[in-house]
Amino acid sequence: MDTIFALASARGKAGVAVIRISGPRAWDAASALGGPLPEARRASVRKLEWNGEPLDEGLVLTFADGASFTGELAVELHIHGAVATIEAVLRALGGMSGLRMAEPGEFTRRALENGRFDLSQVEGLADLIDAETEAQRKQALKVLSGDVSRQAEAWRRDLIRAAALLEATIDFADEDVPVDVGPEVLRLVEGVVAELRQAITGYGAAERIRQGFEVAIVGRPNAGKSTLLNALAGREAAITSETAGTTRDVIEVRMDVDGLAVTFLDTAGLRVTEDDVERIGVRRAIDRAAAADLRIFLLDREGDVPLVSAREGDIVTLGKADLNQGSASGRLSVSGKTGAGIGELIRRVSEMLGSRSASAGIITRERQRQAVSAAISSMESACDAVRAGPSRTEIAAELLRRGVRALDSLVGRVDVEDLLDDIFARFCIGK
Question: Which pick of 12, 31, 129, 220 has the fewest CB atoms within 10 Å?
């Protein structure tokens, strides 16, 4: 196996840069640069040289076989973060026999292959690297720490127990079996099914935390939608004009709202129009509003009625609060120009999306959802077979084995190879 190396910290000038080396020649490579190595997991200062030329002075940290991130012999070089220094050390490593630059995600791939992570943990690590908000960080960290793995193992253990009971009745089919195993099998399998259903119910909220929520601002032309979007963004994200129909396409602004990733959508004003381009914009506005997680209906006057039906939880507010003084309806009123009501609007958005995210479960990806769905389908069929009587015991046992296999695919024990290239292509080179 090749020994690989790469810059593990961000590129560009920095106080400290970390270069990671992993593989059978990792320690030899570090020794060639810095002389005698410190004991494993103890950092020590070394002067780094190559071919008699000084490179830098930095910390050398070694990891023994089986005790590193990758599960292999590994070294981290903590050096000064000057671009020239980084390039000099990488160039020296590249000149050594048996060493090569790592490919994207190759360190993590080796960690998977060496049993340091399972597939769900790898996906959690990918999400942690991409995390932009507190909610995304917390969710990714739970998956990375093994929450999915531990729960899948508990489910798997109960299914194997149930399958073993059925197998026993098959093995002793010609003898009198003193105990009817059917009730115990049903208890075990139905318990797992109930937990799986609960896990899959929380998928939608977990996926939205990972991908981000969408909030559409909807209203008539000149209701103040673009001005409101600019106020929320704190910059001129959308063109504002007194001319109706200025916004023709959906304008998106991504924000962090109390730890949640939220994309606000400024949509075209909803009205009947003879302008072909504006009509396309109106259609897109209606479609994006329908697909959004939450809608803010911005009314331009009291008594105005939204042209798109509001759903439960949607926010209806009166726009242009600086002009619509004296509203007695008690309705929330906002002004993108003065900022009036903006804080309360954000609070309501946060409250609504926060309540939805509270139901998030441990299943965060579509691949995981499909694996759980397949397991549920197999187990429900197995229960039907058990209820049908002894004549279908073998079928029930086979269906339970399929359920176990589906759970194995959840954590990557099986059916993993076709996923890896796509997953690791999204990683940076040093990870």
Answer: 12
Of all residues in the chain, the percent with pLDDT exceeding 90 is 51
Q: Do residue 176 and residue 257 come from a single domain? A: no
The identity of residue 303, as a single letter, is: G
Cα angle 119, 109, 146 (rounded to 5 degrees) comes to: 35
Q: What is the CATH number of the domain that holds 262?
A: 3.40.50.300
The confidence band for 429, taking pLDDT boundaries of 50, 70 and 90, is: confident
Q: Are 61 and 195 found together in one domain?
A: no
pLDDT in tens, 92-143: 999 999 999 999 889 999 999 999 999 999 999 999 988 999 999 999 999 9
CB-based contact 25:95 (threshold 8 Å) = no
DSSP, collapsed to helix, strand or coil, labels residue 197 as: helix
Q: Which of 113, 148, 166 is the last residue of a domain?
A: 113
Range of the domain at 279: 214-357
Q: Are 227 and 329 in a shared domain?
A: yes
In a domain, 429, yes or no: no
Exposed e or buried b for every residue in 111-139, given b needs 16+ CB within 10 A?
Answer: bbeeebbbbbbbbbbbbbeebebebbeeb
- Ordered alpha helix ranges (H), 131-180: 134-144, 147-171
**Torsion from C-alpha of 193, 197, 200, 202, nearest 10 degrees:** -140
From first CA to last CA, the distance across the chain in angstroms is 18
Are 287 and 187 members of one domain? no
- Cβ neighbors of 317 (< 8 A, separation 6 or more) are 296, 297, 298, 299, 331, 332, 333, 334, 341, 345
